Inverse folding.
């Protein structure tokens, strides 16, 4: 890095400014991309939702409404303005942290998001954790016993779980684990129907119930998390296993692994080295799964009556609550892009072989 | 024949799909798939109703077979649209240069969309038009084709035979259609098989959420939706059989993709 080119650019005044180099430059270019990508996401979501044929005002008013009523609703929602004006308004509000109000509840989108996001994050984070542990384990077994029985079994199970729609797996688990075995509570959301959540500190029921010292509620919350986490975890563990198998397999076949074996190092150590070599891929993939789960898990939230942003946005869509849809797309898109950017930076800084040019 | 023996999974899968299609088009069904019979609701699978009956008393077996027609044709339509537009746009984007670089960045940003939410929003906003389901599938899958083609074509452009063709004075059009395109068909076919599988799941997810194919017409997702509540009260067959068919279809097309991948990869060497 010492010999990196120090390009000199001048801005306005004649004072030359050195272009940042190395890690700082990596961070800056990635942040630059983040901002422009977010802008693209916002713009695309706004126009895609706005130019689709179909009139929210008419659907909200219902089939019996008169033309005046529809015009009135359209004016109330600001839908009578030209699309470019609305777009500029939306961007203007966005810069000030205002995502508009819900057409139905009339509450600010930001408030609703803050209220519902923790439930989704709790579910998604635990699912990613589960998928990573199970997926890497299954992938490692497959890679180590390549072509033999454990590999065949692991690949068969992985193939089935990759093909099963997550919402269907959720229903199967409800039937088997709740109805037949009685090991899980009914799919009633984050806690039982007669229970109420803990006082809000972080928004995570697991953490908040412990902070409140309510151990019974903690157990109930954990119990209610079991099936949704299992559903998402199993489906995404299957994707993870496929990647882990090829990555760890490559590491186990590498020259350094052969050398380690030739040196007479115990197998345990060789496997540990293979894991160390695969860690950037594993971290990256966990991030990718986290990102695709946001928004991707909405349908599973619906199956388990989970009161997160997934259920919220699905309800918003059926009621044609456009600001809700745009808010959801924006938040899921923003978190995804931020995670990708962080991953890029972390992996780039961890791995000296990746050049930042 | 040799190919079929080497890829048992794909052979079984394709036979299953063909059988399913033929049955849905020509086979006489034991019951009218849309007929309901109040007295015969929620019956467990038996000799009279192989897959049982649903809450309205309709025969689950007849409905599952009948649904293949609309579900599979929508999936195919979405795939064809994705394939055609994806390949054309992908080839157009496969040049080295600032413009195509930016386009890829745009595709990256598009990947950040919660795609199912977007698909659902488009179909709902259009007033539940079926062609919008096809458009939504294309919207999800076109970027995948574009990325794939771009990475394949960019690496092929470096190869000797393209260099040789250029040295011979072949026009860019000739190079694209005579030299590049024939060499990417393998990966495009694999992607197409995966796209059909993805489309089947997207359609099922949309009908599960209540948009796309709507109520009296049988669809697998709609049937799973109808039987979802029954899963926690023990009537497992209403949602399980259509779910199982979706699972088998996806498995079949995934196996087919693997087999195509293996075969084309081998013929390259």
């Amino acid at each position: 890095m010492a010999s990196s080119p120090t390009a000199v650019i001048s801005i306005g005044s004649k004072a030359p400014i050195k272009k940042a180099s190395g890690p700082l430059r990596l961070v800056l270019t990635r942040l630059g991309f983040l901002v422009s990508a977010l802008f693209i996401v916002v713009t695309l979501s706004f126009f895609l939702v706005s130019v689709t044929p179909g009139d929210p005002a008419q659907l909200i008013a219902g089939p019996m409404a008169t033309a005046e009523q529809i015009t009135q609703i359209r004016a109330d929602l600001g839908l009578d303005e030209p699309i470019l004006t609305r777009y500029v308004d939306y961007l203007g509000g966005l810069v000030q942290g205002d995502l508009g109000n819900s057409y139905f509840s009339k509450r600010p989108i930001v408030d609703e998001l803050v209220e519902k996001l923790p439930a989704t994050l709790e579910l998604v984070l635990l699912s990613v954790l589960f998928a990573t542990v199970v997926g890497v384990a299954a992938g490692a077994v497959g890679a180590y016993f390549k072509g033999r029985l454990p590999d065949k079994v692991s690949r068969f199970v992985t193939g089935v779980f990759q093909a099963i729609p997550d919402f269907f797996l959720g229903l199967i688990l409800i039937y088997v684990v709740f109805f037949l075995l009685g090991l899980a509570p009914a799919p009633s959301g984050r806690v039982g129907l007669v229970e109420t959540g803990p006082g809000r500190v972080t928004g995570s029921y697991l953490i908040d119930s412990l902070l409140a010292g309510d151990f019974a509620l903690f157990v109930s919350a954990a119990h209610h998390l079991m099936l949704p986490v299992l559903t998402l975890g199993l489906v995404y563990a299957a994707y993870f296993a496929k990647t882990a198998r090829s990555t760890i397999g490559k590491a186990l076949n590498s020259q350094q692994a052969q050398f380690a074996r030739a040196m007479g190092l115990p197998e345990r150590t060789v496997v540990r080295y293979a894991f160390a070599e695969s860690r950037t891929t594993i971290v990256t993939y966990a991030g990718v799964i986290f990102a695709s789960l946001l928004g991707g898990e909405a349908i599973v939230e619906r199956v388990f009556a989970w009161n997160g942003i997934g259920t919220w946005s699905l309800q918003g869509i059926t009621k044609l609550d456009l600001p809700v849809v745009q808010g959801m797309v924006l938040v899921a898109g923003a978190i995804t892009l931020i995670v990708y950017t962080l991953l890029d930076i972390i992996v780039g800084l961890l791995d000296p072989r990746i050049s930042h040019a | 024949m040799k190919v079929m023996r080497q890829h048992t999974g794909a052979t079984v899968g394709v036979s299953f799909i063909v059988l399913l299609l033929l049955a849905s088009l020509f086979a006489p069904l034991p019951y009218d798939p849309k007929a309901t019979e109040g007295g015969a609701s929620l019956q467990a699978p038996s000799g009279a109703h192989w897959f049982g009956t649903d809450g309205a008393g309709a025969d689950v077996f007849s409905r599952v077979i009948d649904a293949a027609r609309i579900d599979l044709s929508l999936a195919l339509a979405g795939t064809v649209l994705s394939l055609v537009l994806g390949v054309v746009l992908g080839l157009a984007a496969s040049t080295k240069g600032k413009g195509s670089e930016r386009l890829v960045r745009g595709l990256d940003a598009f990947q950040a969309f919660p795609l199912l939410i977007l698909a659902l929003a488009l179909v709902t906003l259009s007033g539940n038009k079926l062609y919008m389901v096809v458009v939504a599938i294309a919207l999800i899958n076109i970027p995948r084709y574009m990325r794939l083609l771009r990475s394949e074509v960019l690496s092929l452009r470096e190869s000797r035979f393209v260099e040789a063709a250029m040295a011979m004075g072949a026009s860019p059009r000739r190079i694209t259609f005579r030299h590049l395109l024939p060499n990417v068909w393998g990966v495009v076919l694999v992607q197409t098989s995966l796209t059909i599988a993805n489309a089947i799941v997207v359609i099922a997810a949309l009908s599960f959420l209540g948009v796309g194919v709507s109520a009296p017409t049988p669809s697998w997702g709609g049937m799973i939706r109808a039987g979802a509540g029954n899963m926690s009260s023990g009537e497992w067959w209403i949602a399980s059989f259509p779910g199982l068919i979706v699972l088998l279809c996806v498995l079949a097309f995934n196996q087919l993709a693997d087999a195509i991948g293996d075969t084309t990869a081998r013929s390259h060497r």
Chain B has one domain: 2-21+60-267. DSSP finds ten helices and no strands in chain B.
